[in-house]
Amino acid sequence: MKGRQIFIPFVLAASLAALPALAATREENLADPIIGEENAVLADAPNVPPPIARDHATKVIVHIEVKEVVGRLADGVNYTFWTFGGKVPGKFIRIREGDLVEMHLDNHPDNKMPHNIDLHAVNGPGGGAAGSLTAPGHSSVFSFKALNPGLYVYHCATAPVAMHVANGMYGLILVEPKGGLPKVDHEYYLMQGDFYTQGPNGEQGDEPFSMAKAIDERPEYVVFNGAVGSTVGDKALTAKIGETVRLFVGDGGPNLTSSFHVIGEIFDTVYPEGNMSTPTHEVQTTLIPAGGAAIVEFKMSEVGTFIIVDHSLVRAFNRGALAQLKVTGEENKLVYSGKTSDLVYQPEGAGIQVAELPSNAPSAKSRAERITLGSAVFANNCQACHQANGEGIPDAFPPLAKSDFLNADKLRVIKTVVGGLQGKVTVNGATFDGVMPAWSLSDEDLADVITFVYSAWGNSGQEVTPDEVKAIRGKN
Ligand code: HEC
Ligand SMILES: [Cu+2]
């Protein structure tokens, strides 16, 4: 206790010494004269509005329309999202410090709920929430002066707040510092969120929100930009080798903190927690709190597909928090050689890991039933790697869609899924060298999922029965 009493005055002295500089910025921004007015240019993720070219403060008019829309959360899974502008995350707003923002919140007449907006960029009680509480078919207006530069989250703060946020009511507002941010080749917008459906991950159909799971902080989905697979395949972010990339990353929550990481990249610069005054460098993973943001910048030194994850990896590979950045150009073997040697290394006792997964499968009475049940088994166990459309991920997970490996030999496929697979495998002309874990699913589940895979994406349509699985398992 004594030590603490002695220490406090030092802490106070230090923080007081730091305050005048920031207060001066605030005072300056408050005093900045407003010259003219303009309508904000807004953007939907993964895009952001262009940098601010102005060298003075202005009045920026922002219109955001709240819409309650049914959309895709995962393949075959629909969810009623509540949105700022029709999509999750909400429209990206970009202004300059000193600007006067006239915020219009329009609540569409078809909506069922009142909504409001709390912008973390506002200095004022509720961040604008009370000034913007809006019934369906109404429009509210309030204004604020942007006193602090930074990247800020905005969200709905109507009770029950966690429910409005869990349904997708969040977005980012960038308050650019005077003089702007350094020029880069690409800027993108990613926002993580956790979703709480009544059915388990992968259950097909319309999924209602589960308040009980939200309270327990047990999400069924954790995603970037509002859906599993929102930013992969032909929707991946893109860049060329040698180009610089800036990601504006937010975490809407409502509950989970993100361990934001790009596999195979080092962040040259991070603006932690979205602050503009103390960028740090050479960062592998940056923590983004729920209701917080960060800016990360890096220059692409190598080509390929870079996987963007919440490094709490179960969220990435089993719950959906995975995006992609595809970099094209000429590969640079000095930066990354690729695999140069492959030797067998098998200490005694080593083997393929077994994924322990619970199963209490009902038994299918027809091929059609088997396919329906199998599609859920696929969503829960296979989709994370092989993707919802069965196309896999280049250089990482082979395709199951129109796979020659798959369609050539049914017994080999059963063996692959029962016993796992490692070592080189060639699928449709491309070589993969990964590990697929063995699946400790019931014979019934395995028969269902393989039958489903055969029935989908242009594959041969064969049926696999639990007896066939059992026979192969016996030989393993
Ligand atoms: C953790 C990621 C992962 C998951 C989950 C996964 N696989 Fe795989 N799968 C792989 C990898 C990697 C390979 C290639 C292995 C190799 O290189 O030897 C593969 C190969 C295959 C192949 C043979 C190659 C082809 O494309 O036809 C089949 C069939 C297959 N998986 C089916 C499944 C099924 C069915 C499930 C769900 C029960 C599943 N996989 C879950 C990673 C995964
Ligand atoms: Cu709301």
Please tell me about this protein's structure.
The chain has helices at residues 2-31, 161-166, 211-216, 313-319, 367-381, 383-386, 404-408, 410-419, 443-455, 466-475, and strands spanning 34-39, 57-74, 77-84, 93-96, 100-107, 118-119, 138-145, 150-155, 170-176, 186-195, 205-206, 221-224, 237-240, 244-253, 258-262, 267-271, 280-283, 285-288, 292-299, 304-310, 322-328, 354-356, 421-422, 425-427, 430-432, 435-436, 438-440. By secondary structure, the chain is of the alpha/beta class. Strands 1, 2, 3, 5, 7 and 11 form a six-stranded mixed beta sheet that branches. A six-stranded mixed beta sheet has the order 12-10-14-19-16-17. It has ten helices and 27 strands. Strand 2 and strand 3 (77-84) form a beta hairpin. Residues 1-18 and 353-359 have low confidence and may be disordered. The chain folds into three domains: 29-176, Sandwich (Immunoglobulin-like), CATH 2.60.40; 186-328, Cupredoxins -  blue copper proteins (Immunoglobulin-like, Sandwich), CATH 2.60.40.420; 354-475, Orthogonal Bundle (Cytochrome Bc1 Complex, Chain D, domain 2), CATH 1.10.760.10.
Number of strands: 27
How does CATH name the architecture of the largest domain? Sandwich
Ligands: heme C, copper (II) ion
Q: Enumerate the spans where pLDDT stays under 50 for 5 or more consecutive residues.
A: 1-18, 353-359
Into which percentage range does the β-strand content fall? 25-35%
**What would you report as the Rg, rounded to the nearest angstrom?**
25 Å
CATH class descriptor name of the largest domain: Mainly Beta
**Residue-averaged pLDDT, rounded?**
89
User: Can you tell me the number of structural domains?
Assistant: 3
